[in-house]
C-alpha cells in the first residue's frame, strides 16, 4: 500500500503518514470505562464491569473519588502569589486565593475575549509551570523503574512482531492556552521504541505533532480503512496532550437524557475553540469499535493526559499539567456530538453518540486495553519535557523487565509515579504486544452417506 506524506494546516504535521483500519460499532459504554484496576493480578468479576455511576455513563477513568492525598509543602514565590491575588481580586472572585481555580477561570474568560484575562493568561501559565517544576522535585513513591538499564533489542522479536504492529501516535504541545512541553517528545519516544525494539516498519506508524481536530479524527478513520491490517495484528493509539471533561448538567442537552448524561470526557485538539469542539470519549470509542469490527485487530490505547477538568479544585489547590478547562458555551456538548455524527466517514450503521443508550448502560462493545496516566481525580505530570507516565512506561518496556510483561505487571512496576499520580489500566490483562494467531475453524463435517 502506498504511503502518503501530508502537510496539514493549523500547525499540524504528519510524520510517516499511513492509512490504517478499524471496525463497526454498536455499543459503547463499557470499553474505555471499566473498573479502576491498579497493580492487581486478580481477574475481574462480572460485577466489576457494571456501571459505577448512578447515571450509567462510564468515563475514560473510573468516577470513584478517593480522598485527595496530602501534598508536601513547597515555598511559594511571594511575587507570584501577590500577582495571582491581584488577578483574583480583579476577577472579583470570592473566598481565599485558589491558584488552580484562578487559572481555569482565566482560561474561561480569555475565551470570551476578556481584556484582563488576555493580559494575565501568559503570566499565570508561567507561574503554573514554575510550580509544576518545583513539585517535580518531590520524591516519588516508586523509583525502581528509574534504575532500570536498557536491554538489547531481540532480533527474533523484531522479526516476529514488527510486521504485525500498527500505530497512531499523537503529541499535542502547542495550545493557545497552557501549552505543554513534553507531549511531542512522548510520541517520539513511542515511535523510537516501536522501531528499535519491536521492529515496526516506519510505514506502519503515523505520528502527528500538534494535531487539529480534523487531523486527529482522520488519523483514526485511516486506521479503520487500512486494508493491510490483518486479524490478530496489534494497533496502538497513543495520545499525549491536554484532556478535559464536561458535566452535562451544566450545559443544555437533549431533554430525553439530560438528567442521565453524566460526565463527558474529551481529548483536546490544538485548534479547540469557539468553532472547533473537543473530541468526546464517545466519538473515540465509536471509531475504535469500527476499527475492531473492520480489522479484527487487538487495540491498545495509551493516554498520557487527565480528564478532571474544572474538578481539579478537589486536589486541594494543585494544578494539573495536562488538563484544560472545558470550552465555554451552552452548546459545547452538542457541538462535539454533531461533529461526530455528521462526519462524512462515519459508518451509517454506527450508533449515534446522542443515543439514549449511552446513559442506560445497555450497550455492549469491544473493550480495548487502556493504559491511563492517572486516576480521574489525579494529575498527569510532565517532567524534564516528557510525560512522567510515558517516561516510566518507556523505561520499563526498554528493559529486560519489560519483555513479555503483562499490563498489570507494567502498572505495578511504575506505581505510584508520585504521591498524587497512580497509573491504571482497563481491559484484558495481556502482554501488550503479543501476537495471537487466529484459530482456524474446524472444517465442516461431511455427513453425506458413502
Explain what the structure shows:
By secondary structure, the protein is an alpha/beta fold. 28% of the residues lie in helices and 12% in strands. The protein contains ten helices and 13 strands. It has helices at residues 78-90, 99-111, 115-135, 155-161, 183-198, 213-224, 281-295, 332-341, 388-397, 407-414, and strands at residues 7-8, 12-15, 165-171, 205-209, 234-240, 243-247, 263-267, 279-280, 298-304, 369-372, 382-383, 386-387, 424-426. Strands 1-2-4-3-5-9-10-13 form an eight-stranded mixed β-sheet, sandwiched between helices. It starts with 6 loop residues before the first strand and ends in a 24-residue tail after the last strand.
Helix and strand succession?
A: EEHHHHEHEHEEEEHEHEEEHHE
Gap from first CA to last CA:
48 Å
Main sheet, how many strands, which sense, barrel? 8 strands, mixed
In terms of DSSP E residues, the strand content is 5-15%
Task: Set out the fold topology.
Elements: E1 7-8, E2 12-15, H1 78-90, H2 99-111, H3 115-135, H4 155-161, E3 165-171, H5 183-198, E4 205-209, H6 213-224, E5 234-240, E6 243-247, E7 263-267, E8 279-280, H7 281-295, E9 298-304, H8 332-341, E10 369-372, E11 382-383, E12 386-387, H9 388-397, H10 407-414, E13 424-426
Parallel strand pairs: 3-4, 3-5, 5-9, 9-10
Antiparallel strand pairs: 1-2, 2-4, 6-7, 7-8, 10-13, 11-12
Helix pairs in contact: 1-3, 2-3, 5-9, 6-7, 9-10
Give structural attributes.
alpha/beta, disordered N terminus, 450 residues, 8-stranded mixed sheet, globular, 12% strand, single chain, 3-stranded antiparallel sheet
